[in-house]
Design goal:
The chain is mostly beta strands. The chain contains three helices and 17 strands. It folds into two domains: 151 residues, no CATH class; 102 residues, no CATH class. The strands form four sheets. It has a five-stranded antiparallel β-sheet with strand order 9-10-17-12-13, with no helix packed on it. It has a four-stranded antiparallel β-sheet with strand order 1-2-7-4, with no helix packed on it.
Length: 289
């Protein structure tokens, strides 16, 4: 397996590097997530435009659609090659506010602040994505576009093709920030371990200190003394099943194991919060200090 060479105590962290790093960690820990964890923040492709489509020529119709994940109250810069100019189109005011043109012909580009989460929630997405550029008036020629780019910030940078980030997810007993939920809230993940679970519903983990707003994923794995592994939840038979659920600030569950006794139980919880002002999330800097 390829090993990582770090130059002068640091190196750039792209997709290939990250995946290799994860492979190295899995090899060292033999896949046992209880032995350690690693945290990496803000790894993503610069160009957020997954796909795009060309619209019609009618007045106030959409010329350019782009598919990307919109975050509320975020500054974006949009750029694209086009046969149109600033006089033909304008940024969609239902997505961006305070939009300012950077380049007005050849490669059109502008920067603007996305609207708040409530406003964005009312915006529908077509098969091609979101309506980005709309027509000032009826166009006499069919619009053409190529190499669209959406990046965070207010500075236009050279075009880079969109590259799907194959995130080999980080699982840790420390709370991890893993993305954004559909309502714009930050999404978190935390892994819990227990060696006790019965055939009757019982409290497994106290989660009252997590300040949870919504649970979006709850799953786990049971490992028996004989080496068998069962996913949670599971129903195989009346002698092989497991259940997980949330009730009164506890992760609760039960399980019946047909063979062997429980050796380890890992529970994976993904969630959003009502308020994060008093909660500290592990960061790369924290773990390095």
């Amino acid at each position: 397996m390829k090993k990582i060479t770090v130059v002068n105590d640091e190196t750039s962290l792209d997709q290939d590097f990250f995946n290799t790093l994860q492979d190295n960690v899995e090899e060292v820990f033999n896949g046992d997530i209880s032995m350690g964890s690693i945290r990496v923040d803000n790894i993503e492709c610069k160009n957020l435009a997954r796909d795009y489509g060309v619209g019609g020529t009618s007045q106030y119709g959409t010329s350019l659609y782009i598919d990307f994940d919109i975050e509320p109250d975020t500054q974006y810069t949009v750029s694209v090659n086009s046969n149109l100019t600033k006089s033909n189109v304008y940024p969609n005011e239902k997505i961006f506010k305070n939009a300012k043109w950077i380049s007005t012909s050849g490669r059109l580009s502008f920067t603007g602040l996305s609207l708040d989460s409530t406003s964005l929630a009312s915006i529908s997405k077509s098969d091609y994505g979101y309506s980005i550029l709309k027509n000032h008036s009826a166009l006499s020629t069919t619009p053409t576009f190529s190499e669209p780019q959406i990046e965070k910030g207010d500075v236009e940078t050279p075009y880079t093709p969109y590259k799907e980030f194959s995130n080999k997810q980080i699982y840790s007993t420390n709370e991890q920030t893993i993305g954004t939920w559909i309502d714009g809230k930050t999404l978190y993940r935390k892994v819990f371990q227990t060696t006790s679970i019965s055939s009757e519903n019982s409290n497994l983990v106290d989660i009252s200190n997590l300040n949870i707003n919504a649970v979006v994923n709850l799953r786990g794995v049971l490992i028996t003394s004989t080496g068998l592994q069962f996913t949670m939840p599971l129903y195989d038979s009346s002698s092989n099943y497991s259940v997980l659920f949330i009730s009164s600030n506890y992760i609760r569950g039960r399980a019946t194991l047909g063979s062997g006794t429980l050796s380890k139980c890992y529970i994976i919880l993904e969630y959003t919060k009502t308020d994060t002002s008093s909660v500290s999330t592990t960061s790369l800097e924290d773990e390095e200090s």
